[in-house]
Specification:
5-stranded antiparallel beta sheet, homotetramer, about 375 residues, alpha+beta, 18 strands
Chain lengths: ~375, ~375, ~375, ~375
């Protein structure tokens, strides 16, 4: 069915396979009048591009974006924004084994069962290249959010078992290491760890954290379209993500009410919270505090280490997946998590605009 | 905006406040021909009813469901199923402080900001009674899933810091203790813990786990409507849930690829997996193994313990929330998590039915 | 599938069969703060109630509406508004023939084929009572539109071949005759015509016209969700409607550009049109002129005259449909057309609110 | 808001402006396994291409389509199909007057009011080129329908006042004249009429008729997503369409029940109808008879004849629109109406697949 769209007002539809002509996204429902150029989007895409360090794959794809519609004289027109990125590095090759085998940890088997056959080239639609459309859309959403004073920041909180402690956070370090970690010491340990795994032809996962500041209070719709619920969908829909939490998340399960509740206070004549265990949401709506979410990313499934599996003929075989694969996908997932967060907030922010008659009257009089 | 609906084909719309005339749900898109009676739904509702143990509130509401449409001669007709539960225990009372104060951990403040005013009686739309519609819909979804050989089971994995170890699981115990835990010893420790918190007028949270067996392979739509992504939205949208994970979830973040990948094997001529770290999904589609998800539930926000907060006039005050509140909401959340899981699977199962031309031809010839 | 909902932001979901416990609607996405009471809705329902003249059925149903949720202290809360009308006149009777025969002009046959069986009592879901939910929702939408200075008016333009000429329009007559026609002479002729058909146990159709004034310019979304396109869906989805046109409609097909184009002019410093052949829309958006639409309503299908048909066993039979049926449904369709128009405009008006960054900034600063 | 998508399962999203880099469509939810190549789509696009006769514009655009995704080894994969047509004939020119004036009959004025500014080049998003995405999607939908034995045929029923009588229909003539009329004599008269209008620098409209054969019974969802209701939206959303009718349409309004009802009969052991006044739908579902719909198309708005209008500064001016414009758009609208009909049927056909438990069981066992 049609599962390639996300959002209700600010609605994105991604398309494309890793080895077809290209990948892209159509953004429908973006308000008119937002300054936007290709460079705004390219900056985001460059953050997920491979070939940036020894810990990411050596493919060298430019991933240049082309704006096909929806922008006129440097501003969005209110009509759909179509963005295209051509696939460039499509080496014709013999997929051999891969074409008829189910790689462990990959979507090959369910894809075959669901559709009757599958595009076996590089994972087809379940390739990491599918995230290009998400990131391009995230760039546009961020442009809108920035106009309203909302800013987002995502980074790596953990690589394998190496986690950045709350006390060690140094945001200025994020762009200074290959892992986008807010701590040089944690990044150093992570580097050693990943190097050792590479030597063993193994891989690891980690945790991405994303924060957003400046959200007005009340963003998010009660019941099913809660801010945290849609963020959970948005982030869990990213390929390798296996868990999502907001604020204290799973730790809240072992806390007590008197500690977990965030007391309200007045500061400078404004309501605010003394603590932020809730991670910026109450009842599924933004509560004025910083929005905090975390995503658990599983270890890269493609490893050169020999694994057991079966092929389409139902024979048990051994498989060793060679090629240019990231030993850890987390650093490249950072901008994807940030992008999906931006898209989710943008959509709910527009939804919230029509929540009360006073707002409508303000616009139509 | 319209955030009270969930699902695309099997689509539920809940409505109702805790202190209005009633709560309910409309289920649109349920296939015709499913045997259904009020008793099927009542059985589910009874599982979330208050007044069942000393650890849940002493309100005594029958929560009797009435089928208003969509069922004829004991079978669903294919037209919308409207279900109504009247609110019975609506003591008229003086809300006093509560009506003009923001309770910590509750949605009062964002509700007021979003809509300009709020229904302060018992939390209004953000009350736990909102889940009645979810559970009634879950009963119908389960009826459909059962017809196809799919079964679900949810239970409490942890109360505060007391977790049931994998080794201790005894499913027969689930209905034998007030917490729905699959372990009598864990339930006993949990009981002592909750009693001690009640003495301190405090509260705690916990973890709900839900498993599903019998899913065909390929359920879930690639990209945004992945099985795990929609489960994440569905479960995170339940009032007190702060985190969701699938399979190994957050633990996968610190694992390695060679351990986290589940090797495929042939068993009895069928493809299956040796392990199930993925929790039954690959690429967002069911992979034939048991589906496993967990939800982190925060401690009950309403506590009698004195807390700091502010009122609508912007004054800092102290608040103590009396009334009939569960010291831990987890046991009553169990059936809600199971229901949302059932609704999500039912919807994606119907979506998957039209995934390939062969299926369509089978139906139209 | 789920086809019982309409609208994206102001989203209505109707449910109910003619001979079940009741019918109703859930309105999700209605902005908070709109004054609303049961009397507002009852007034609309009373306009479609049977038993009002000798030309409509003699069933005497009160059709009292109950607001089950979404209204607090006389104002909408922003959460779903659930409205219930109990079915009262459910005489238990022997459906005999009807239960196993396909009535010509009715939905019996496709219903049976689609769902495998059908609720044969009074047409089930395809009964005219399904429109009660539409009208109740239309009352709420109108309440919102009125707050913004938008007013609607629907009436009967033709009964069978008797049409009200443009020159004869006298709006004050609409409520003065049983047909809601804006002309006493046309109504008189229509009365004689319908009486003669009743004598022959036959029936007739007619045309409903609806106009709306006060729409801001730009309501309607380009491409598929054009104002006129959604009005066409909304109105064509009413049971007996077989055609919809906007402005000059089908007459425009035989006009020429120089006559059909409406020249723009300035009046009192404002842009306006000299003529209004377009019926108030340009490019699918409101153009500031009066919105005009017409719906063709077919003759009532239920007639006592003997007709050929077949039964479920595949036998050719004769059928004569007795009971309380309107010889012409048009007068009761008037408020339904007005209601669907109101719902469509309300939804698109809310959608348009977020069309440009300037609007968003106005609300979030 | 996001109004550029149509359909729920087979969901199309069009994008693009007349003078941007290109136009296109993303089709999400197309079942896997349908044979599809660029030539299938090109054939449809060629039917709407300008430069085909003296009655259509002399622009010479190849409108070559590129499949960017969703097709592998000659078959659809079940993932989104992205189709791109580059704009080729974008002469840079001085829009002068047009850029700041509101052309009568065009969307310029509401576009400006809605979005704050507008892409004035060739109508931007409201250009006829927007229909390229519709037609490309229609080609894919038709490919699916053909696999199931459903065929569509659209043609011109009237040019201005010149209508093809029922008795004169000769389907073999449709491709033999520039107007796609099923009658050579009517086409000849239409040709003379259009020539005379061209001499006067005026334009005309007409009526497109579309029929579909082979639909299974029961396609269309009761209530809002009726087959006829969604066809009405689909067809009315085409630029110049001002009216839509099904079967006898507006004529049914002046008929009587005993004549308008189509009696059921048995033929070759199958239920069928003696007549087809209903145009193939009952209660919004297909009834086994031929589906018949008509669309009223207004005269081309762009005429060289001098017209009154105003500019953005609020001055009354005179305007004469030169350039390459069709004196009548009807012939090029034929394939657009057929395409939108195909897309609507395809979507509802997939929706209907999951209408009953028996169908679901057939697929999952």
């Amino acid at each position: 069915m049609s599962g390639s769209s996300f959002g209700k007002i600010f609605r994105i539809t991604t398309w494309g396979e890793s080895h077809g002509p290209g990948v892209g996204v159509v953004i429908d429902g973006c308000p008119a009048g937002i300054p936007l150029c290709e460079e705004d989007i390219q900056r985001f895409l460059d953050r997920r591009r491979p070939g940036q360090s020894k810990y990411t794959t050596r493919r060298n794809e430019a991933d240049s974006v082309e704006i096909l519609s929806g922008v006129f004289e440097g501003k969005t027109t209110g009509t759909p924004i179509s963005l295209l990125v051509r696939n460039q590095d499509q080496r014709s090759k013999d997929y051999g084994n891969i074409a008829v085998s189910y790689r462990p940890g990959h979507a090959d088997y369910p894809f075959k069962e669901k559709y009757g056959f599958r595009d076996y080239r590089g994972g087809g639609r379940s390739s990491g290249r599918e995230t290009i459309g998400r990131v391009a859309a995230g760039a546009v959403a961020s442009r809108l959010l920035n106009e309203l004073g909302i800013t987002l920041c995502a980074y790596t909180k953990a690589i394998g078992p190496y986690t950045v402690d709350e006390a060690d956070y140094d945001m200025s370090q994020i762009t200074e290491n290959s892992f986008y970690m807010p701590s040089s010491t944690a990044a150093e340990k992570a580097g050693e760890y990943v190097s050792s795994l590479m030597a063993e032809t193994d891989s690891c996962g980690g945790i991405v954290e994303c924060v957003a500041d400046g959200l007005p209070v009340g963003i998010g719709e009660p019941v099913f379209d809660k801010l945290d619920a849609l963020l959970a969908q948005a982030v869990m829909s990213i390929g390798a993500v296996k868990g999502v939490e907001i604020g204290d998340g799973f730790s809240a399960a072992s806390s007590v009410g008197s500690r977990n509740n965030d007391p309200f206070r007045m500061r400078d004549g404004k309501v605010c919270k003394e603590t932020n265990h809730s991670g910026g949401t109450l009842g599924g709506m933004s509560d004025g505090a910083r929005l905090i979410l975390r995503a658990a990313v599983k270890p890269t499934s493609s490893i050169a280490k020999t694994q057991h599996t079966v092929n389409e003929s139902g024979e048990e075989i051994e498989i060793s997946i060679h090629g240019r694969h990231d030993p850890v996908i987390v650093p490249r997932a950072v901008v994807v998590v940030e992008s999906m967060t931006a898209v989710t907030i943008a959509d709910l922010l527009l939804q919230n605009a029509v929540s009360k008659l006073d707002n409508i009257k303000k616009l139509y009089s």
